[in-house]
Amino acid sequence: MKAVVFAGRAALxxxxxxxxxxxxxxxxxxxxxxxxxxxxxEDLSGNGRHVFxxxxxxxxxxxxxxxxxxxxxxxxxxxxHPGEFAYAFAPxxxxxxxxxxxxxxxxxxxxxxxxYSPIAVCSSDPDGWTDGFGLFLGEGGEAAAFRSCGxxxxxxxxxxxxxxxxxxxxxxxxxxxxxxxxxxxxxGEAAAPSGGCEPAPLxxxxxVGRGPAQPFSGGVADVRVWSSxxxxxxxxxxxxxxxxxxxxxxGDDDGDGMPNGWEAFYGLDPRDAADAGADPDGDGVSNLAExxxxxxxxxxxxxGAGLLRSVTATAF
Length: 316
Known about the structure:
The chain has helices at 9-21, 232-240, 260-265, 287-293; strands at residues 26-30, 40-41, 51-53, 58-61, 69-73, 86-90, 102-110, 117-122, 132-137, 142-149, 152-160, 167-173, 177-182, 185-191, 202-206, 217-226, 301-304, 307-310. By secondary structure, it is mostly beta strands. Strands 1, 4, 5, 7, 12, 13, 14 and 16 form an 8-stranded antiparallel beta sheet that branches.
């Protein structure tokens, strides 16, 4: 395993906050906002599942939804580093809890449209997709997703992705159906196998060596994976967070008393003041109150050994 060092005040702030407040459902979160020369991207969920990049095929830049992005050249002859099976991968993702319900989301900016180009795939066989799940480009370059388990599989597609344009794509499996979302709206749904699957590493822009499939070409940003089926409103919120460019984390666009950066970090909508009074973890404390107390709105308050305990967070 490579050693990873993440420097800089902003990165340290995010890392400390992530470690202190990671939601149990958020299994991995990568924004590719490190220096361009870095060959790894930090897992902002706090789970330590960093993505390693094959720098001969992936360029990391500072521009993109959420503050950074990874760009894949789509060349099948640009092999990753020895021992790696993808242009970018998180080997420790096989320790995640994503075996049943899940949500996976990413901002995608396709280059040349390529049929069956993988975007984010969690499978023991990242070439064959015989198990697991993932996002990819369909036969005509449209957004698509799959789930395979125990010999059964489900595919869903919809929503053309024009080359050179950033679009938000998400897939959700709730135990019975696999649905696809483009820019916060449902684009398709199909029945899916309900059995559990074995955890596997997560690969981005995988090497594919069979059939009509080909490596992904284009940009990927703000990749997140949850071990739960997000609500419709939560998927829409993940999309709206970075519409029109990155937000000023110190600002408060919706005037609800919670900083943009704090809301975006916890999956709230910096452009919707209504979420100030919501209580997503059901602990009887509103989001606004959690923010003022310096606590995570996702962790709740747990009582144990006679002590009142709460996950705390550093304010932006």
